[in-house]
Amino acid sequence: MPDIDIDFDTNERKRVINYIINKYGEEATSYISVYERFTPTTTIESISNLLDVPIQVSNFILSIIKSNKLNKIDDVLKIGECSRFYNEDPLFKEIIDISSLLSDVPKLRKIHPTGIIISNEDFINYSEFELNSKGDKQSLFTEHDLESLGFLKMDILPLAYLTFQKKMSLLIEKNYNLKINFYNLDINNKKTYDLLNLGLTQGIPHLNTPLNTSTVVNMKLNSLNDISLVMGINRPGPMKYKDSFLSIRKGFKKPNLYHPTIDKILSETYGIILFQEQVILIGNNYAGLTFSESDILLNAIKSKNEAAINKIQNAFFEGANKLNRPINTTKKIFEDIKEFCKYGFNKAHSIIYSHLAYEFAFLKANFPLEFCALTLNTSLDNRSLNELRYMNIKLLPPDLRYSDFTYKSVNGCLYMPLPLDSNQDIVRDLIQKSNYVFENFVSLSKDVLKRSDIETLIYSNAFDYTGYTKKAMIESLTGLLEFDTSLIKDMVFKVDDSKDEFDFDALRLKEYQAIKYNINYHPIKNVKGNFKRISECAINTNITVVAFITGIRETKTKNGDLMATMSVQDELSFVDAVMYPICYNSCRQFLKNNSLYEIKGSYSINPRDQKPQVKI
User: Fold this and answer.
1) Cβ count near 465 (within 10 Å)
2) Alpha-carbon span 349 to 277, nearest angstrom
3) Which residues, in sequence order, are bridge partners of residue 605?
4) In the 3-class helix/strand/coil scheme, how is 575-591 assigned residue by residue?
5) Which among 182, 366, 588, 607 is most buried, taking Cβ atoms within 10 Å?
6) Each residue of 288-316: pLDDT tens digit?
């Protein structure tokens, strides 16, 4: 039976499950069990606790398991002198013997996070059940057990992007009296492709990784099909052909030709296999395989089943020979198919992902303020702060008159949230009663907020509209908090209107502590001259930027040479950086955390985490 995965709005997922249960009946539907099993590590830990084993003994065995990545307890005896310990030390032998019996035994039953089983008859004839902690019927069998019995498994998956999309639709309808129909969206919207081609992809599903973003910028997209090509070329199989792919697309290079039958199939992907469907068509059109046999070819290579590969390879070559295909072409295309199929992607998924990516890009390009505010509020991608400058959106610090507890758009600007964890309704009421007067707010808040909360608001710039300096407001707190609120109508205690202020570095530190960013007090504001921002720099280029260095951490290379890792940031952009031994040794004495430097290095994608990195 097929295994069907369907994505739903996170908030609507339970309603879909209830619909399935009501439609097919409680007796014919069931949640699924998942069993957590004893691993070699958890087994040793459990047995050691039970037998009160000395910690140095258990740690010794655990270190062997972890350092050698052992999957079986018995394999411990193959390491070093463990076999001798087993024969000579009764405690060591007891630990290993009992642990061997427990390893891979189920220790805990849980509910499958997304799966539900559907039957055309009463499940009680096939499986035992119990009511789980939520009162739902749960089979004691696993998904594999139930599928082997012929039952249909469906994964009802919660997708946060769909929840986001629904919230965006409601916001647009509220703000512009406009209903967005995603089934009838303009798929040739110029603003959308212009936004993508600038690399402004944060918050856009499937395109917001540094790798995909750099590919988008290189390709210059102009269709949904182009987006699907981005999804395909960055898979591990085809990725090694990426440079050729981009050169062919830009017209710098001609595509490799196999045979007219194959070249026609690969024409839309510039002569390179990107999708699994192309493999199936090549098997059918070039080698005369049935679609079913071509699918077997695809799955045999994916599963690395050598016997199955050899069998279908023989059929592929025999079929190609019967159609008088050149033997060298047949060998070449089959080797390329084998390489692609290891990590290939199917076009059906790619097209669906492309539609979702385009829909989000459309929303971002045409309703940027709402999109960025909602993106930041839902934490789908808080790196969107890096892009605001290039979307002509002004980010402002909290302001008591306009801000709430989420990012909020007002008069074409985006205000940061109030940095408070207090009861939101009480604070909103407090703000209204104070009439936005600083002295009133502080005096009224003494039974609601801590002094540290008010200080955080001050340093977050939330009271800057008053014209008071932060130093004056901080120094007035004691008097205001002790002031009798019953006298508020005849207020006599006022903040000193002195213009004396804390120094810039102190305010920078306090602002960062309050809102985790520097907006009004970023050190770069004091730097004069034209220089590039980090987010203006292209991937795979040498860059020179003026930036702030934080989090310097000294480490050593394999050869024992000193080097350092750190973060490099300007007003809103931040990337990791690594400083190699030659450079680090020459400037180590001058490096200080939270200091400003001119930085020269190469800007590229770190292959380990696919994030941008500066190499110095």
Assistant:
1) 13
2) 11
3) 612
4) EEEEECHHHHHHHHHHC
5) 366
6) 999 989 888 888 887 777 888 888 889 99
